[in-house]
Specification:
The protein contains 9 helices and 8 strands. It has 316 residues and is an alpha/beta fold.
Length: 316
Amino acid sequence: MTERYSGPIIDAHHHLWEPRRNFHPWLSGAETIPFRYGDYSAIKGNYLPEHYFTDAAGHDVVQTVYVETEWDPRDPLGETRYVHELARRHGVPNAMVAQAWLDAEDAAELLAAQAAFARVRSVRHKPGGPGSPEEVGSQRTLMSDDHWRQGYAELQRHGLHFDLQTPWWNLDEACRLARDFPAIQLILNHTGLPSDRRPEGLAAWRAALARLAEWPNVALKISGLGLAGQPWRAEDNAWIVREAIAVFGPERAMFASNFPVDRLCGSYATILGGFKRLVADLPITAQRQLFHDTAQRLYRPVADVIRLDPYLRTSA
């Protein structure tokens, strides 16, 4: 017997932005950068709480987690102040993953400043590195850089987590990071980016994910599963979603929308509805962990009341 989840949702990964007001190197101009979903011009406009909740209509989103948006790297605290002002006006976001360049000379001071904000729970610094499995060995990511790791160690001082976005072929470096810093919670973003859907690619992705899951201080966001030029379909992602949950367990995994970025691949209803359909055979307690409880435990969202009148929300 299946029971599709209809309870409260904490969206563990989404973005908000106003690129014409706040400089984002990849969003604010006419130029584009190479992007895993291809042309992303459609998401270069404003995306604010009213747009998000219009997209999320029909799903009981009670709290959200904002993740840094590659805002102007010269002003990381500007993004944090901006997000807290949005939260003051709208009641969301309820938690934040802030920007921090861990190899910067002022990393320790920046982390202290970020941690002082009420909603900051984690930071993200994409570590770069090999662009394909074939390049592993000849290149390494920042996760193996001593200076970067000194910045990473500072997270423990402030009780901050680390959100890691890197492809699955770099996860052995993430294993060493989790091993060497067991007191720091590491949260892998976007399911480890399983873009290679050939059988051998998926087998290698699962094996890498399983090695990382051996470390108890690691959790997983199931999100970012779109493919360039293809509409998002639950059946295309079914095996990945189920294997990710089998590897980490629902107590260490959480669903997230990655909106508005994943809007390039499908609607909120298609993606979140697809996730609900794919796990409807799990116990309802496990479904609640995936959609709400794991995110609540890890991100400890501020319990504000969402102030947007649903009848006044505008379309994007």
